[in-house]
User: Which sequence fits this backbone?
């Protein structure tokens, strides 16, 4: 029996003792249940935060003591020989490529441009298409819906070969635009925005038309504020999909100075197999933009903004 199992058994035993000695009073039993709930939540927080603490410790530890300590070394052994910034110095050191010296920040900029432009285009075009499918009647609407839903069943990997052929014909191979254009519209996003726009009252749109608001004005001023939680959720999903994309950038991009972070980190994993801290330092930096975006959009995930928009 390992230490973790002994620790869990000890906690269960402590909870059982507290529950048994609390007496028959309702207050004592509630106190024991609150204590047990707090212990379980503390264990859950430790299990979730443990890997992040290990990552932070690994990127600052010297490669000579990386496997010597699970987390940070004891405070008495902290020195430049055990805790330093050598992993970041090696990560930011420029490397020679076919088009000159390439620094790590170039890969970060490539991923930022790819994820930002791709997410913005998907957000605008998918929301416009979803709004049109939800609130307008036109010929071929049902067939278009069936085609859109059917396209979601096709694995994306099957489309890489024809999309790569199209990029070759257009001369857009080894460019970020050749990677962005094929995925400027998301069928999944169209479906999400269509479902969200169906909940927008038609009376509210008619009131906007009566007040002289144009169709684009209705879309920007009335519809988008009401479906803002869905827009925020899709924005986060799309950004993570672009930021973590590996297979498509690995196929479309060839030059060293145009690669994105996931592709470069995979190369670093092979290059720094002995010096593993450099790869972990790059991984930690790659986690920061999605985390910041989540913190910025977390309040928008609360739905129900459409309630009360129309009285009666």
Assistant:
């Amino acid at each position: 029996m390992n230490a973790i199992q002994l620790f869990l058994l000890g906690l269960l035993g402590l909870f059982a003792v507290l529950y048994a000695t609390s007496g028959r009073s309702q207050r004592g039993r509630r106190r024991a249940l609150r204590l047990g709930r707090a212990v379980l939540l503390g264990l859950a927080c430790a299990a979730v935060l443990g890997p992040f603490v290990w990552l932070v410790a690994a990127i600052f530890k010297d490669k000579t003591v990386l496997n010597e300590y699970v987390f940070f070394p004891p405070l008495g052994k902290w020195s430049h020989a055990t805790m330093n910034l050598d992993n970041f110095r090696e990560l930011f050191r420029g490397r020679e490529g076919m088009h000159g010296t390439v620094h790590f920040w170039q890969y970060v900029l490539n991923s930022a441009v790819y994820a930002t432009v791709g997410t913005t285009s998907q957000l605008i075009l998918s929301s416009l298409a979803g709004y049109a499918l939800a609130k307008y009647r036109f010929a071929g609407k049902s067939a278009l819906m069936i085609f859109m839903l059917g396209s979601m069943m096709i694995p994306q990997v099957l489309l890489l070969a024809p999309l790569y052929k199209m990029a070759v014909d257009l001369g857009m191979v080894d460019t970020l635009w050749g990677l962005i254009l094929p995925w400027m519209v998301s069928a999944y996003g169209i479906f999400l925005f269509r479902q969200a726009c169906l909940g927008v009252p038609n009376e509210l749109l008619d009131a906007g038309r009566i007040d002289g608001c144009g169709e684009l004005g209705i879309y920007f001023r009335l519809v988008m504020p009401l479906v803002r939680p869905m827009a925020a959720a899709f924005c986060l999903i799309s950004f993570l999909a672009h930021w973590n994309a590996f297979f498509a950038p690995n196929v479309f991009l060839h030059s060293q100075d145009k690669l994105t972070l996931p592709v470069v980190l995979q190369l670093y994993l092979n290059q720094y197999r002995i010096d593993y801290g450099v790869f972990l330092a790059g991984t930690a930096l790659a986690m920061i933009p999605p985390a910041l975006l989540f913190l910025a959009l977390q309040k928008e995930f609360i739905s129900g903004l459409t309630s009360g928009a129309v009285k009666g």
Summary: The CA atoms of residues 57 and 72 lie 5 Å apart. The chain has two domains: 3-78, 95-301. The chain has a mean pLDDT of 81. Residues 3-78 form one domain.
